[in-house]
Amino acid sequence: MAKADIDFEKELWNAANELRGAVSENNYKNYILPLVFLKHLSERYDIVQDELEGLMEDPKSDYYTTDKEEKTYVLGDPDEYRSRNTFVVPKSASWQYLKDNAGQDDIKVKIDDAFDVLQDLLTAHNGQLVNLLPRIFVKSELSAKQTGGIINLLSHPKFSEKENPESDILGRIYEFYIGRFAMAEGSGAGQFFTPGSIVRLLVEMLEPYKGRIFDPACGSGGMFVQSLKFIKEHGGNKKDIAIYGQEMTAQTLRLCLMNLLLRDLSFDIQLGNSLLADKFPELKADYIIANPPFNVSNWHPEDLPEGDPRLFGPKEEFTTDGSANYMWMQTFWSHLSDTGTAGVVMANGAMTSNTKGERNVRQHMVDSSMVDAIVRMPDKLFLTTGIPACLFILSKNRDGRDGTHRERNKEILFIDASKMGTMASRKLRVFSDEDIHKIANSYHAWRASGAVTERSRSALTEPKTEMQSPNGEEVRSLSGAKVRSLSGAEVYQDIAGFCKAATLAEVQQQDYKLTPGIYVGSEAEEDDGIPFESKMASLKTQLLAQFEKGEELKKQIVANFDKL
């Protein structure tokens, strides 16, 4: 069954609602997600076991054998399963066992016991996975009937990885729950959840095909999962990426680890405060994709060591206790490789803040050509906060030495996407695929080799003019404007009201403000083709008619008063 054919939202939320009354909505995730994870481990074991049995029955396979003892040995060999990214799951920890006992009074004990068994396997496999599945059901207020109800609902065939191969069904269930739980939890969910369309936009802009991907505020791991999806969609190999992350909340770290294990990704995720206890001081990442907490105050910059290598200058000049936003920026920059790029979600205030510590960092970033692009986003993209947001793209490959992108050290691309997106509900706006492609394609065209500079822009044919590239290829439309293609490549062009490649000098003249609206100007109005003189005459006639109608109404009102 294809992904698009599996519609499970209603049933999944019904399963979560089994917890209603006994568990607050903001704690649903702590009970549902570990069960989804257990189901994944159990089904993975069943799938691999079936594969091994098939190999031993196949005369063409190296595993082929008719010896019953040999078969029993292979099917019970832990190494055979570990080499296929899974474990030998004992019967007492299997999903089938929990399903068979869902109606028993001691089902909560059985779940916690199953967690203990799986936790031992996980800890032995990777020390980072300690305490991933704590005993939580026995001490909960859930009844045995509620607990069994969750198991029965999650046992539906449409939620089975075995029944729906290649669908990533349990990963998708996990992703669905994280999003829905964020909606239920409200403002407290920002620490573990970034809306999917924002994550997709960042990943599409950065294109993390291969290399080291780092998120020092990784939450539940959505940036990593979306990077994996991008790689798959573009024919890449997940073995070409190495994942690193840091998360300061132990509970959220567990969500991330389970999320990555569901996708069979290799990773190094550490617990700790990235600002004050950087666990990866030597890491140089090819891509940083992050949504750090906005505007965190009282984060104790005084606890930073003197001469912290991340800082652009003296601590008292380049930090402020009022907001951690620009300490995050300095942390991201310090972790980029020589050709690395960072995509960061930030509060809009970071584009213009004049607090000394923040202004100093922003000015240093502009003067030192660290900022590649700024994207202003629309409101209501986050369910978890009403704070308007933007994207900062920082890059160390602005000199063009990577052989893929042109030299753009003296430019910054500004994109105003504040009018984009579609309301998916009364409270939530999302980017469509078209929105994401429009923004990402504009960025890619601007930074690509052969992109248009101010000197060559005048040579472009006017927008809306049909044309072909010099080699005869059809020109691709970018944001609705037809532009000339040099050697067939898509070429960037400023579009009033949407995007502008501003020089560093222009930004410096604007007192280092990075708000895109300052640079992109107003969107050009469509010319309706009616001459001004004709339009003015028509408006005058319409206005005189309205005046005449107003006089008639005035007389009628006075006449009505006289009758009273």
TrEMBL record:
Residues 456-478 are annotated as: Disordered. SUPFAM superfamilies: S-adenosyl-L-methionine-dependent methyltransferases. The keyword Ribonucleoprotein does not apply. Gene3D superfamilies: 1.20.1260.30, Vaccinia Virus protein VP39 (3.40.50.150). PROSITE patterns: N6_MTASE (PS00092). It is an enzyme of class 2 (transferase). GO terms for biological process: DNA restriction-modification system; methylation. Its EC number is 2.1.1.72. It comes from the Bacteria. Residues 9-123 form the N6 adenine-specific DNA methyltransferase N-terminal domain. Keywords: Methyltransferase, Restriction system, S-adenosyl-L-methionine, Transferase. Residues 167-528 form the DNA methylase adenine-specific domain. GO terms for molecular function: DNA binding; N-methyltransferase activity; site-specific DNA-methyltransferase (adenine-specific) activity. It catalyses: a 2'-deoxyadenosine in DNA + S-adenosyl-L-methionine = an N(6)-methyl-2'-deoxyadenosine in DNA + S-adenosyl-L-homocysteine + H(+). Belongs to the N(4)/N(6)-methyltransferase family. This is site-specific DNA-methyltransferase (adenine-specific).
